[in-house]
Amino acid sequence: MPEEVKKKRITDIGPHDFHDYLPPVIKKNYGKWAYHEILDTGSMVHVAENGDKIYTVRMGSPRLVSGSFVRDLCDMADKYCGGYLRFTTRNNVEFLLDDENNIEPLKKDLEKLGYNVGGIGNVVANIVHTQGWVHCHTSASDASGVVKAVMDELYEYFVEDKLPSKVRIAFACCLNMCGSVASSDIAIMGMHRKVPKIDSEKILNLCEIPSTIAACPTNSIRPDTIDGKQTVKINDETCVFCGSCYTVCPAMPIADSLNDGISIWVGGKVSNARTKPTFSKLVIPFIPNDPPRWPKVVEAVKTIITAYKNGAEPGERVVEWIERIGWTRFFKITGFEFTKYHVDDFRLAETTMNYSSQVRF
Amino acid sequence: MGKKHETPLLDELKKGKWVSFVREIERAAEKSERTEDLLGQVENSYRDKITHWKHGGMAGVRGYGAGLVGRFTEFPEKYPGVKECHSMRVNQTSGFFYNSDILRKIADIAEQHAGGLLNLHGSTGDIQILGVWQAEAEEAFQKCAELGFDLGGGGSDLRTPSCCVGPARCEFANYDTLQICYDMTQAFQDEMHRPSFNYKFKLKFSGCSNDCVAAASRSDMAFIGTWKDKIKINQDEVKNYVKKFNVQKYVLDKCPTKCMLFEGENLVIDDSNCVKCMHCINEMPKALRSGDEKGLSILLGAKAPLVTGPRLGMMLVPFYDVLEDSKNDYEWLKGLISNMWEFWDEYGVSRERIGELMQRVGVVTFLEGIGLEPIPEMVNHPRGNPFIKFTDDED
């Protein structure tokens, strides 16, 4: 009997119990934290009811990292914090220290290695993003490259606290939206603009026709027959280029090197603080892909950040600022053009109109 | 070491202050030869302005229908190292806590059995090991399993649950997000590993309504910590904050229900009108804390745009006493989830998320189906039109 059969196969054990990786001071004070204070954009302290403290040093990460990157983190964690570290939902790395004196040496060591310490407070936090051309088959754009270019430009806002409130930027390379970007202060999203090309030769082998038809949000796909063979046809008039059909049917590719690009949305928010959570709203419907550094996308994001920084009151998130000054003025200040694409025509379109005589002149 | 592929466009992304993913791919390629072809393939995309990953193709480990996401290049001759470039989703720990020992071992697996590249973490929460070939998937999986790490979800199944840092390092946590995330993940292993749903289903746990894991904007069932009783006020600390900044303007005036006021120097809160938005607590964490009667709200149906448009989570259960229910192995919660999955299984169609099903059949029909009553907390306001479908069971 082969060796591998004799060895018991391990399945369905679930994730590792997190308790094994909690630093002692966290284990001791689990659920007993009293308050926290932000020390600077790279560090904060949480104080327990009994006065115990845990210090956090945060650094950015490109999310897509090498084993060597992981080993760098581990070396730092061993040197300064007993090997304990965690990651955040926004892909930052957090070192968990019990000795305040280790904060500055750790930061210096991280910066020496070329890493970015920051991301806490009224800053542009790390951009959550998707796989893009690095690893995805439905992407309308790369993800990591755009994010890198934007973060290079906004670097000062990651390391210095000088915005009215926090700004959450997120990137999704198509509207599958793996990054769930739709509730961000600034959302950057890959867009297709042409109808899928139907490969009628392959469709029967690769796809289920009924589920392909059902995948369309606008009922634009209908059954068809070409040369006696079953296929589908698309109503070009109503297709919204979402790529949902391609997700279920590989014989309907939608990516197009000349017509794919990026859209920009603002004013989303997930926190319930003050105002309810809300989706981001369209600002720029389309910017053509322009690798390697997407300068027009970077410029647009910078324009929004600058206008927000100049216009918002302390504590106002982007959406709160825009709702105070009105969308008309937002478009005027930023210079972005309001077009027919900005008027919603999908499911909840009617609820987005201004049913009042209230306007700002 | 000479470069296998010239990458002039990607090289532009090694410039600048932000840490470079291109540099990371290069570092991975130093340890794992196949990843040199990933650089070539991505450069090719940068040149052509289009993805070069093929759609479709199966990859997996025995007995699981999820956990390994298949990925194949369009140009296997040109980039043989990424002929297969699957990603293995490894279920992260609750709150993403690790130590250096375990992370080094995971990095070893990524270098020895894959492309030496990882996502820390994927959008849903998993550790992703990139560049796995089918032939070595089983070994990579078992090596992770030997470390106590199973694979995560994928496809039409329960996706890997995730949670915020919770009581491990946050005073705002109103329940143990890490524990319930771990417990639910363990309880639903079969639903995660063997896809049998209409579409994906996500569970996310945030300890307060700041919602740091964006549960209510992206998970079918979002668990948001809250409390029922009074905010605890430390008047001395309030006075300290008053010395530091304009508390009236930046805290009281921004309260969405204007339920706070100063009586002399003392802060008074009308807790019956507080909506637990967290603003005042965020601004004055030393002075204000949530009450003692803690639990969570359950919001239902959040999702990304496909297929019928994006949705935010809708209030379903205003207060769930998770601590009490956890003593009974979450009997009530598991009952609710099971009712929902049954209704979804019965009436949902392929690729229909539960929020879309609720929209299609109507909220009231959905509530009847899962055994909950309509309550005012669920709506912004009552119906504003007279098109009422009275039913015969009215007297």
Automatic annotation (TrEMBL), chain A:
Q: What class of enzyme is it?
A: oxidoreductase
Query: Could you tell me what this protein is called?
Result: Dissimilatory-type sulfite reductase subunit beta
Q: Which Pfam families match?
A: Fer4 (PF00037), NIR_SIR (PF01077), NIR_SIR_ferr (PF03460)
Domain 4Fe-4S ferredoxin-type intervals: 230-257
Entry-linked SUPFAM superfamilies: 4Fe-4S ferredoxins, Nitrite and sulphite reductase 4Fe-4S domain-like, Nitrite/Sulfite reductase N-terminal domain-like
Lineage here is: Bacteria, Deltaproteobacteria, Candidatus Acidulodesulfobacterales, Candidatus Acididesulfobacter
Molecular function GO terms recorded: 4 iron, 4 sulfur cluster binding; dissimilatory sulfite reductase (NADH) activity; electron transfer activity; heme binding; metal ion binding; sulfite reductase (ferredoxin) activity; sulfite reductase activity
- EC number(s) given by UniProt: 1.8.99.5
Q: Which keywords has UniProt assigned to this entry? A: 4Fe-4S, Iron, Iron-sulfur, Metal-binding, Oxidoreductase
Annotated GO CC locations: sulfite reductase complex (NADPH)
Q: Where are the transmembrane segments?
A: none
GO terms of biological process kind: sulfate assimilation
Q: Which cofactor does it need?
A: [4Fe-4S] cluster; siroheme
UniProtKB/TrEMBL annotation, chain B:
Q: Which UniProt keywords apply?
A: 4Fe-4S, Heme, Iron, Iron-sulfur, Metal-binding, Oxidoreductase
Q: Report if keyword Magnesium is assigned.
A: no
User: What is this enzyme's class at the first EC digit?
Assistant: oxidoreductase
Q: Which GO terms describe its molecular function?
A: 4 iron, 4 sulfur cluster binding; dissimilatory sulfite reductase (NADH) activity; heme binding; metal ion binding
The protein's Enzyme Commission number = 1.8.99.5
Q: From the UniProt annotation, give the residues forming the signal peptide.
A: none
Domain 4Fe-4S ferredoxin-type residues, every copy: 265-293
- Supply the name of the protein: Dissimilatory-type sulfite reductase subunit alpha
Which species is the source of this protein? Candidatus Acididesulfobacter diazotrophicus
